[in-house]
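Appendix B, example 12.
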Amino acid sequence: MTPEPATVPIPAATLVLFRQRTGTPELLFVERSRAMAFAAGALVFPGGRVDPGDHVLAQQFGDDVEDGASRIAAIRETLEEVGVPVGLPPLSAAEISGLRAALQAGVPFGQALSAIDVTLSITDLVPFARWCPSHAPARIFDARFYLAEIPVDAPEPIVDDTENVRVFWATAQDVLDLADRGAATIIFPTRRNLERLALFDSFAAAVSHAARHPIRTITPWVEPRDDVPHLCIPTDLGYPITAEPMHKTVRG
């Protein structure tokens, strides 16, 4: 079989998790291992590739199988990476541990859920954005971003110590400030999304904003502005900053 070209986009999904205890909502972040090929050492939201099993399971949830599979992937990856259940009924620590172990062993998500008689719901996820950068020479992800809120008493996240080395809650602005001080690395799509997420004082405000803006695949492009190359995105998709000088950009 002839392998697909390395530049064929890989379907992926990301989950932006909100938790609001007091004041500004916090978001869940993971720090990628420096050994990873993609976004090594960067702060990102939980997520990963859409698996074939996600498409199989998505057939239970309506006609838009691609969107359904992406929602399932976002939920599955978040559970596997950080042990936070989304779209699931309350689970014991033992059930969460067992599901994570099954997923890490390669058991399809649907099969793992059936084994403990748990039903998945994907309707609580809110579509927020879709990014497909085209500059990477070897690996391009076509990533759908979803929003979800978890209760303040939800299980605390658990770092997996494989792909990720740290997991924590912080506001969007906190992470932007860390990056600006050189204390954290964030890639271009993450920065743009954090700038947008920093606009919101609640999950409801984020959902309302998302509903007012279309979701089109964002593929950044380079254009000169005052003779300085800038990496740009569309201006009508809800992002407060839509261009950045190339010398400031951490691409990904």
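The first helix runs from residue 52 to 58. Residues 53 and 108 are 6 Å apart (CA to CA).
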